Amino acid sequence: MKIAICVAARDLVHAGFALSLAKIAKTIDCELLLNLGTVIPQQRNQLIKEALEKQCSHILWLDSDMHLPENTALQLLKHDKEIVAASYSTRMPPYQSVAFTDSNDLSLRLNESTGLHKVWAVGMGCMLVNTKVYEYLDWPWHQYIEHKESQSLMGEDIYFCKNANDAGFDIYIDATLSKNVAHYGTKSFIL
User: Fold this and answer.
1) 71, 113, 154 from 22: Cα distances, Å
2) What DSSP element (H or E) covers 175?
3) Are 83 and 170 in contact (CB under 8 A)?
């Protein structure tokens, strides 16, 4: 089993993320793949191609604005699921989980604090995907989609989750691990 740790980043990563990445990478047999750019769906699609070319069995998606425990990869692997993730908080108020439980009502979010839970979709800041999922799904695996009713964009992570669900793949959240995952943001401090 060889895991591709894939990071789609802009031009900088958080120092705390770099430390998390180093600690996680030393716990598993892995290929570290980084793609710098500004079009996240395009970056993710390229990273998947690279992971498949390197014959990796799984992709561990990590966003460069996350703080993760050292045992992240091992914890997700032990569930033996095709798609399993950790949830985390949004960076803007109202702070809430990025794990959605119902495709028809996106206000319903997972708020469990322990155990393994099936969800409809989740942000991909910390997600382990068996590469056979990508071999089964059609390209592009990630893209932005306009949602005309709400006049908003569906993110590339939710697009992937929707397609995976439609193809019969279940998505799980490790809520216990999620308690130890943080989403870095920026804040101004004033005296």
Assistant:
1) 12, 26, 31
2) helix 175-178
3) yes
3 state SS of 72: helix
Between β-strands 58-62 and 3-9, what pairing exists: parallel, antiparallel or unpaired?
parallel
pTM of the model: 0.95
Q: Do 43 and 8 contact (CB within 8 A), yes or no?
A: yes
Q: Residue 163 — φ and ψ, nearest 5°?
A: -65, -40
* C-alpha torsion 4→10→16→19, nearest 10: 40
Query: Can you state the angle between helices 40-53 and 156-166, rounded to 10 degrees?
Result: 50
Give the pLDDT band of residue 146 (cuts 50, 70, 90): confident
State pLDDT tens for residues 81-94: 999 999 999 998 88
99-100/3-9 β-pairing: unpaired
User: The tokens of 189 are what?
Assistant: 């401090």
Q: Please list the residues that pair with 130 across neighbouring strands.
A: 58
Q: Note the pLDDT tens digit of each residue in 61-77.
A: 999 999 999 999 999 99
Q: Cα separation of 114 and 107, whole Å? A: 21
Structure tokens of 99?
A: 């794990």
Q: Is residue 155 within 8 Å of 144, Cβ to Cβ?
A: yes
